[in-house]
Predict the structure.
Amino acid sequence: MFGSKRDKTGASGRGTDEALRLVKVSKSYGEGESAVRALDGVSLSLGRGTFTAVMGPSGSGKTTLLQCAAGLERPDSGIVMVAGEEMGKGSEAELTKFRRRRIGFVFQQYNLLPTLTVAQNTVLPLKLAGRRIDKAKARSVLEQVGLAGRLKHRPDELSGGQRQRVAIARALVTEPAVVFADEPTGALDIRSARDVLHLLQEAVRVHGRTVVMVTHDPVAASYADSVVFLADGRIAGHMERPTVDAVAERLAHLGDDINGSDYAAQLGV
Amino acid sequence: MFALAMRSIRQRPGRFAATLFSSFLGALIIMTFNSMHDTAAGAGVDDRSAETLTVAASVVGGYGSLLVFFAVASTLTVAVRQRSEEIELLRTTGATPAQIKRMIVGEAVAVALLGAALAVVPAMFGGQLLLDVFQDSGQVAGSVEHSFGAIALATGFDITLLASVGAAFLAVRRAGRAAGRRPGRGRTFFAYAALVAGALSVSATFLLDSDAEIMMAPPAYGAILLSVGCALFSTRILPGVLSVLEGPITALAGAGGYLTVRNMRQRAAQLSNVLMPLILFTGMAVATLYMQGVENDTVKASGLVKAADAKTLETLNYAVVGIIVAFCCIMLINTLYAATSYRVREFGQQRLAGATPRQVLAMVGAESAVLTVTGVALGSLTGFAGIVAFTTVRTDQVLPGQGLGIWLAVAGIAATVTIGTSMATAWRQLRTPAVEAVALAA
């Protein structure tokens, strides 16, 4: 579906201003009576250079949303478009190749390879994709995240905050259209969490990347430009320029009125 | 802590399958051969039959037991090492090192006892079959009844238990220590001890008469001990092999090969546990098959036995040696399976970093290739030491006249088994979605 020819042309979605678009994406787990509908026809559109937090109570489907959008899970129905290109339903190898150029990840548990050094972990996605390794570029990304002095360290020699910063460098080095972050501060202390959030913010404001972050923490969400609320697998609201108090307030009353269709209509999808 | 050990076995039987299987198979082999001692001791067994049985039990049963000891120990070491995360978790929840040790060793005892107990009935049939083979070849009188008694049971349980407990004890001690990179002093000591003992055992061959019945024992013991020594030293040998093979691996396996080289440098200690059964298999197969070939030719040439008898004797000996070689091969598969199946999380992380399933397989394949080259080279070396000693004493030549056929077959099987098992297991692991694979807890 998405051969290498298209890979070259639409790499980072420079042809469109839309970084991510979901159209009526649904996903269920389990079968029959015990089936759980984790995502129920979610539609969403995010522009390039935006920083969006996805929030909701446990079980609201936020992680499923991120995994479907990032091509880690295949939705049951609906369309996912990254940088104007539709994500196919091909084999894992095809999906992997699609993700390589368009998507970067930051996970709560870092998922760095323990046998590789900081520098090797950072350039691994380029290596796997068979792309040219620009050492100077890799170093500058690591400098940007404040790890220039630790290139030869291995993950187990770093603190949690430092590991997450390596993960961010790894996500940014391929210059993806969208960076997905799944609870990136979930395992960190307050100070490291703040550093990580500043870095994600900087990636958007200074380097023009697009970041989608799943979190349950109103403080983390307040670093984003906008917040999308999820409840019971549907979009339950939207907030621009969030503040900690406003987000916490909205989260507390999320169960009161679940009205996802308004937001979808407002986006025009 | 023992209750916790029991619960952890009951909750996750799959995790113990590999160790249970290796204790079972080990005990089966030991009991089968050692029941020949019991049979020889039975009433009304003529001298010639008793001698044949005793020689079979003490020569093959003897080095077989030593082999089982190391094979079981290496599987268990792999299994315990994989649980370092769980051990860490127990430590953080307040378990003292002594409690953790009791749990791991307790589990090993339970699994070894179960494995040995399960092996009793099959070993009775196995012993009967082995006796039938001896009787069919006329080496043992047809009137001799198979007996499965104290010697078979005692050796079966003792050796299996000793190997399991010993390995669990050493492995948990290592896992309990903070993550130090340097190989322990104990390891170096054991490595030297095994090499010295192996060299002594091989040299002992020269002290024997050229037609002694137990001629094959010292070189076989020697080959096993030298193999163990080499496996323990392989943490230092592997980096050297890697630096030589780095170019070809990266050229052939691409980014997968890049990961292989980095991975193997860091995981040399774990890999040496996988190398142990591989070196043992190669060493044992090469040594015993060539020695048997030399023995057969010498018997034939001596003209002491009729041609037809020589033929039966040959078949018999190959059957006995074949059992041991097949055991080594199964243990190799078992260890490789255990070692690879625990890597599902690592594979998941690689896939999340952008590796396609094919690249992960290429990495595993390249890794197995390096292991095969190293293992077959070292195994051939240790086997060769035994062969040269045996051939020199038994005949007036230094090298056996069997040609390279056996060696090529052994190397071929080693390569197929190592690469095949690892890649098939990895391929199965790849069916777990990457996100789930990294979320799988210890």
Chain B has 14 helices and no strands. Chain B has a mean pLDDT of 85. Chain B touches chain A through 28 residues (CB under 8 Å). Residues 368 and 419 of chain B are 5 Å apart (CA to CA).
